[in-house]
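User: Show me a protein chain along with its predicted structure.
Assistant: Here is one chain, sequence first, then structure tokens.
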Amino acid sequence: MTDPTRRLDAPGLACIDLTPLIASTMREMEPDDILEVHTDDPAARVGVPAWCRLTRNPLVYSDELVSPSPNHTVFLIAKKNPDKKENQQ
């Protein structure tokens, strides 16, 4: 697994509030940095990957865990690099 540059713990935060928080955190990061996001909102399992596709920030990894809470999900998101060809269309 890729080592994250930053970590965002967001237990209890609904996906509708989580994705803007991810966006604001990513603005402070450098291209290709990795953000590790921890959430317990089941909707994030759909919402965060969708946000990654829409913003073209690559979803590097995701996993649903049973600890520390039953709905715990971890995401690793790379900040897009505008100089890389796969980010362009």
